Amino acid sequence: MKPALLEVMRMNRMCRMVLATCLGSFILVIFYFQSMLHPVMRRNPFGVDVCCRKGSRSPLQELYNPIQLELSNTAVLHQMRRDQVTDTCRANSAMSRKRRVLTPNDLKHLVVDEDHELIYCYVPKVACTNWKRLMMVLTGRGKYSDPMEIPANEAHISANLKTLNQYSIPEINHRLKSYMKFLFVREPFERLVSAYRNKFTQKYNTSFHKRYGTKIIKRQRKNATQEALHKGADVKFEEFVAYLIDPHTQREEPFNEHWQTVYSLCHPCHIHYDLVGKYETLEEDSNYVLQLAGVSSYLKFPTYAKSTRTTDEMTTEFFQNISSEHQTQLYEVYKLDFLMFNYSVPSYLKLE
Predict the structure, then answer these.
(1) What is the spatial distance between Cα 325 and Cα 312, in angstroms, rounded to a whole number?
(2) Using one digit for the tens of pLDDT, what is the confidence trace for 248-283?
(3) Residue 182: beta bridge partners?
(4) Which residue of 44, 152, 155, 157 sits 20 to 30 Å from the alpha carbon of 132, by its own alpha carbon?
(5) pTM given for the model
(6) Cα separation of 138 and 205, whole Å?
(7) Is the dihedral of CA 304, 286, 263, 164 positive or negative?
(8) What is the spatial distance between Cα 253 and Cα 234, in angstroms, rounded to a whole number?
(9) Where are the domains of the chain?
(10) If you ran DSSP here, which 8-state letter would residue 231 be given?
(11) What would the pLDDT profile of 281-327 be if each residue is shown by its tens digit?
């Protein structure tokens, strides 16, 4: 059975009583957040002010006001995902909306495509390299044609893509209201293990070893050698977890983006996302975004088998040596991501 179908079945059980309206919040002047109800599918929630791109329909029109009378299974699935986010934000309002105000710095993960009226919030370790490549093709105006010809390091150069924090407040408000906003998410602990493997087990990531590894070893390892304290190159997963749940860590500075929570990176309880893609249905969801943008005839999401990809089985192995106390504390850190994006509590967890 396809992952998307399984998800629909699971969400049907969870969301039978969820209203079809979505509560969105747009950044307004001086970054005050005002709630705004979005009507149900098949009605244009933006009225006549959604400007068409050179005579074509905008992605928001394609999504909320499709030409066909019957909604596709894909459209229904994404409506359910939006409802899941909205319902979680409402149910956990005290936790999810502690901050009433965002600053421009909070918008640095939102990549803007003016030509196709898209805003993509990138989440590290959720195919963001390939999606940044796609955004470079979409915004390059002919400079690029094949996303896989763009080197990975070039995709991560900030100057190659424009982010929402670079606009004025009125421009930000207009784009949040008129552009289609989307993000991609992943099972939180699988993403966490992927970040650990990439940043702490690869010899070439010396900058992470120096910046974070040395700090983690100093705090979490008794009788650490001088070499370990100096290089920070052999951080154990148990030490990484202890660092994440240590209250001193978040008081000191925000998490690095590679292990920061999605709700802290993209602020889905403040910004209404029109599409929530998932790593588990990456190709299907990505091509749906491209379809809505009107570019699917010449641009597809890059597909290739990555042999080093972190799997659920790998994640299970990494958590075997984590105490139930630390597992419980870590789950609390990422709880909103689990709930908001409909990920079940992993069967391997021993929560207290």
Answers:
(1) 21
(2) 998 998 999 999 999 999 999 999 999 999 999 999
(3) 120, 275
(4) 44
(5) 0.85
(6) 30
(7) positive
(8) 22
(9) 59-188+262-309+335-341
(10) H
(11) 999 999 999 999 999 999 999 887 666 788 999 999 999 999 999 99
